[in-house]
Amino acid sequence: MSAATACMPLLVPPPPPSSPSPLHGSDGQPAAMAPAERRHHPRGMEAAETESHGSGGEERRRPEAEDDGVMSEPRAVVRTLTCERKVYVEGFAYWRSIGRTELPELDPILSFDEFEFSAPAAFLDHPHRGFENVTYMLEGGVSYHDFSGHKGTINTGDVQWLTAGRGVVHAEVPAGEGVQRGINVWINLAAHDKMVEPLYQDLASHAIPTATSDDGGGGVSVKVIAGECLGACSPLRPRTPALCLDVALRPGARLRQPVPRGWSACAYVIAGEAVFGGDGGAGAGNTSAGARTLVVFGGDGDGVEVRAEMEGARVMVVAARPHGEAVARDGPFVMNTTEEVEQAREDFRHRRNGFEMADGWTSDHAATYAAAR
């Protein structure tokens, strides 16, 4: 939904029948979502629950072990960014933390947005290649339809982890009346993974593992979207190894979360006020952040620490293993060179190399908008 500006494809308000989207840096799964539904392209068929990926039978990578599962050295906060609400078009606004001038990327995280989505905005038929798109709904829902026949709605608390790989074409629209809210993150794929077969991993809210702890005396509840926390492990298998947690802390509560050394890590405060880093006290190493603020952690240390202030807090913690590769991106395509980006555009234009199913295809949403003109 929202890798706007440089990362974001073009968006179209209601009348026009087709267009690419910011739902990407943000996006959407099914009315009756299976607990851990995985679908491979290019046939739109559900994949078996195996550890193979794509039609080539490549081995699916499991999440890396978080060191020994115990954090001994919390990382310090090296940067804090306050996010401002920006209106992209009527019906779509976002708060961008990563993917802006001050922080173009946090390898491999390309963009990080909180978004609001409502009519008349709609992201109609548009392509993607070369990255993973994560959409996590905070309130309301987003409906989608792609060229393989994969369609549905992701609702409050649901997540969709889309590995775009060699190519996906889809549409996304608000699923109900009023404002739909969520988080959208783009995570880059390594060069050797950019042309893998696309894969949807959809997880309904009730199927996302939840872990709890009373550390700090106040209570911690964590939805483990990807990776592992407090002994709970998500069934999602990101192509780029990653950790994604929705952390709710009561006043005074604390979470100490292991993060593999060398991984990039950040935290976004959704609500309340949180304190990061340090020794659990009011030391100089602590950083306080309020709602719609992103903190970026330094590389030294084997984990992150977050505590809630008097009103409690809700925080999204995201970490991922960096690729250390050149990045070339333009609209919906993220590759390693400008030549590869242009090749992606040509492939989409000529409906080849992953975009064959787009030939003659129109999403249900685009057809509905066209009929309403």
Automatic annotation (TrEMBL):
Residues 114-187 form the Pirin N-terminal domain. Pfam families: Pirin, Pirin_C. InterPro entries: Pirin, Pirin_C_dom, Pirin_N_dom, RmlC-like_jellyroll, RmlC_Cupin_sf. Residues 11-20 have a biased composition (Pro residues). Residues 1-73 are annotated as: Disordered. Residues 245-354 form the Pirin C-terminal domain. Residues 43-64 have a biased composition (Basic and acidic residues). Belongs to the pirin family. This is Pirin-like protein.
